[in-house]
Amino acid sequence: MPLCQGCRQFVFAATTVCPHCGVNVSQAAAAHDDALSEAWAACDDLQAAMARSGYQLAAADAGWVPPDTTVDVAKSR
Amino acid sequence: MVPSEPTLPRRFATGSDQAARVPVSVVWEITAACDLGCLHCGSRAGRRMARELDTAECMTLIDELAALGVRDIGLIGGETYLRKDWLQIIRAIRAAGMDCSLQTGGRNMTVERVDAAIAAGIQGIGVSIDGLQATHDHLRGLVGSFARTMDLLACLRDRSIEASVNTQINRLSMPELPALAALFTSLDVRNWQVALTVAMGNAADRPELIVQPYELLTLFPLLAELHTEAKAHGMVLQPANNIGYFGPHEAQLRYVNDAAVHWAGCGAGDTVLGIEANGNIKGCPSLQADYIGGNVRDAPLAEIWDNSGALAFARDGQKSDLWGYCGDCYYAEVCMGGCTWTSHALFGRPGNNPLCHYRALAFDRQGLRERLVQVEPAPGGRFDNGRFAIVVEPAHDDTVLAAA
């Protein structure tokens, strides 16, 4: 069963109007897909930008591994 | 960037498993002997059953299970270690290529026994913890039993084995769920399965323990919140088969590897099989005696699995079998009344399950609630149940359990 993207409750594939929240299921799904595509694209952009700035993704999906950003406190004063 | 392909544990049934009706996952009660006396024990475990399978019969059964395509066997009791041959059974299961885990109350699961089980090939140990110290000790009927579970979790944390916790949700343990979640994450527990206490066996003698349908209105938002918090701490909160159904938290609670999945009806006798200590075969180990499909002493397991009508109720069930609210529910044809065991324990037959969040919400929107009242006690045998009636009444403001 697909999820109604209006209320995140499951509906039957043939359901056109969500019985729980009243949205048009296919329109809500299309809007959700668009938003998701934008989000993935933003992730790609962010990943590319961070790579350019020296950040690297950890191999085991453990999060971001920052470059050496140690600041020489004496110089910065 | 695309999401990674989810990898399902071997105990999860695939579409091809369902099409071929492979009993992927087996829960095997290898003995009814138990060293605890739990107030909510559905099987009323304690003493060994008459004519429990002997070692040779267990070895034959393991071969039959492997031949049927079983991939995962969970050993339960009673207490598994109260059988002298429990390690031999584990070794044989592993040697036959099947995964093996066990469930324990932990009273006498010593470091030595844990190490022996690991050496025999056990891959996971689940510990039953049903509340904080006072509640757990009360429900388990033994002062000090909670401390033993803590010792056991500490032992498992130091070993390369999957440790999980199972918690029954009842009117005593429910307010303590947030504290339990914090405790388990602090102990590096990775999997926490929660199930409603079902009015069966000893629990049928204590109906005041059973969560009322209207209390699900408090429970489910709480579970959703705990699910989120647990995930952030690396622990998966898994709803058991009687936690449901549908409703606003279904996609979150029943997710698998970040994929939104939903309850798809009782899997008993479809891809799940249960074995009692005396060789009785059921579609699910928790089910009542009405669902015994045969005994492995009387017929080959494959013959029972293929031909027994008592195992076929779930896969052959029809929407028209449902009754009460469930019969007219939007989700009827997929949900099929939720957990067979739970509804049968209430009414002596499946197909109408008031312990449903979606249903409780529907009543609440009308300013109503359902309340379960026991009208007939349980007779006192293994896996027995009494009878309950549903009272529909105006919702009250005093019904919300304190959720710390």
Give start-end ranges of low-pLDDT stretches of chain B: 1-5
> What is the strand arrangement across the widest sheet of chain B?
7-6-5-4-3-2-1-8-9-10
Helix content of chain A: 40-55%
Helix segment tally of chain A: 2
Elements of chain B, N to C (H/E): HEHEHEHEHHEHEHEHEEEHHHHEE
The coarse overall form of chain A would be rod-shaped
| Helical proportion of chain B, percent range | 25-40%
Mean pLDDT of chain B: 93
Structural class of chain B: alpha/beta
Largest interface: A-B, 12 and 13 residues
Q: β content of chain A, as a range?
A: 5-15%
Question: What is the topological layout?
Answer:
The complex is a heterodimer of chains A (77) and B (404).
Chain A: H1 25-52, E1 56-57, E2 64-65, H2 73-76
Antiparallel strand pairs in A: 1-2
Chain B: H1 15-20, E1 25-29, H2 55-68, E2 72-76, H3 86-95, E3 99-104, H4 111-120, E4 124-128, H5 133-140, H6 145-157, E5 162-169, H7 177-186, E6 191-196, H8 216-232, E7 236-239, H9 250-253, E8 272-275, E9 280-282, E10 294-295, H10 301-307, H11 332-335, H12 340-347, H13 357-365, E11 368-376, E12 387-394
Parallel strand pairs in B: 1-2, 1-8, 2-3, 3-4, 4-5, 5-6, 6-7
Antiparallel strand pairs in B: 8-9, 9-10, 11-12
